[in-house]
Every structure is written in structure tokens, then in C-alpha cells.
Amino acid sequence: MSTSTAGHPPTALVIEDDDTIGRHLESGLRGSGYTTTWCRTGSAGLTAAHDNPPDFVLLDLGLPDLDGIELARRLRQDLPDLLIIILTARTDEIDVIAGLDAGADDYLVKPFSMTVLLARLRAHLRRRSAPEAQQDAEPTQLGDLTVDTAARRVLVAGEDVPLRAKEFELLAELARHQGSAVSRETLMARVWDENWFGPTKTLDVTMASLRRRLHTAEAAAMHTVRLPQIITLRGHGYRLDPPPPA
Ligand code: CA
């Protein structure tokens, strides 16, 4: 069972108006040890979040009373540490990006499997409770890609990939949050300058160069390699997706 930093089982708030999905989420989360509250409207969800702040919220974007994106914004504003995962049936990327911009940490497109949801939750909660330095002690292995921040090395199938400093830091930052969206602002702040504001052209250029170098390393490998994919989330940022299991 997962435990939050305080040692108690993490508490979940589900805001979902669909009976079938809501019941499924509630029983799945309870079965995994999460103390779970289920609200069917946005206003009930907002009240529940204020009365008893949960560790994470699963937020349906299509609610009968309040706009889900506006609700995400209010939750983020009122509860800065809350883990917010939005659930959307809409396939339009624009909704996902609006949700992430509003402060959601991650999203799932319906229909999704409970197994995937639970795995994502564990990853998010683990990351939140582990200090960053500790995560970096061990190299990150993603298929045939190794990111070793302690040694400042990146390897593809055991071969060193020469990267410039910013390319390395960009990849390390994405690997640190693998499977999660990382906004352009976050990348600019962490890789370049924490006081950075303004255009992000430098990020595009560095990303293009990083992708080229990884492609070159992939092409040079003696056998077929499995590498994570850097997904572009237009208008938001990037996400590093681990390769599918062999
Ligand atoms: Ca709905």
C-alpha cells in the first residue's frame, strides 16, 4: 500500500458525475488502500476539498455544474500542494493542455484502465515524498537509454552519447519526471534560469538538437534499441514516455 509523507494512507477525492465511472474509481481506489471521497458535482467537490484537503484529486473535466478546467484552476490556487489528475473523454489536445495550464499535474483520457491509473498515482506520490537528490543517486534506465546524473553521462545501448550541458540537463529533467508532462516554463526555470521569463526559442533549439543526437545514437547502435519517446505537448511542454515493455 502507498503511504503519504505523513505515514497515513493517501486520501483521494473523486469528482465525477458519471455513476459507472465514479463507482469504478471509488472501489478501485478503496481496494488499493486510499481513503476515498466521491463527489458528483464540481461545487460538492470544491467544498469537500476545502473541508478536508485530500492528497490527490481525480477530476472529470465534463461536469454538470462547473467547468472542469476552471475547477482545476481554483483547486490549484487554493491548495498548491494538491496532486490534480484530470480525466477527460474529450480527445481534443486543447482540453488537456488547458487543464495542464490550469495547474493539473497529469491527465488520463477515458476510457483508461484502473491498473494504469494506479501506476500513475504511485509514481506521482512516490516522487512527491522522495527528495530529488535521492532520486538522482541511481542512474535512470529507460529501455536502452541510461541517464546517469551523478556521472553526467547518457548512454544508448551502453554507448556514451555526447551531449552539450543544456541538452543533458533537459533530458535529465524529463527523465526525472518520466511519464508526466513538464511545462516549458518549468524546463526554462530548471535548466536555464529560475528567474527566466520571456521567449523560449532556446528551449526549441536545444530540444531539436537533443533529439538529433539521440536519433544518431539510435542509428549507430549495432542492434534494434528501445528508447523512450519525447512527446511534444503543443502549447504546454514535453513528456518523456518510457518505451513499451520488450
Ligand atoms: Ca462527466
Task: Provide an overview of this structure.
This protein has about 250 residues and is α/β, with parallel strands linked by helices. It has two domains: about 120 residues, Rossmann fold; about 100 residues, Arc Repressor Mutant, subunit A. The chain has nine helices and twelve strands. Strands 2-1-3-4-5 form a five-stranded parallel beta sheet, with helices on both faces. Strand 8 and strand 9 form a beta hairpin. Helix 7 packs across helix 8. The radius of gyration is 19 Å and the shape is elongated. The chain starts with 10 loop residues before the first strand and ends in a 5-residue tail after the last strand. About 30% of the residues are buried. The N terminus is likely disordered. The structure holds calcium ion. Calcium ion (CA) binds next to loops.
List keywords for this structure.
five-stranded parallel sheet; 21% strand; binds calcium ion; Rossmann fold; disordered N terminus; four-stranded antiparallel sheet; 2 domains; 9 helices; alpha/beta; 12 strands; 246 residues; 43% helix; Arc Repressor Mutant, subunit A; elongated
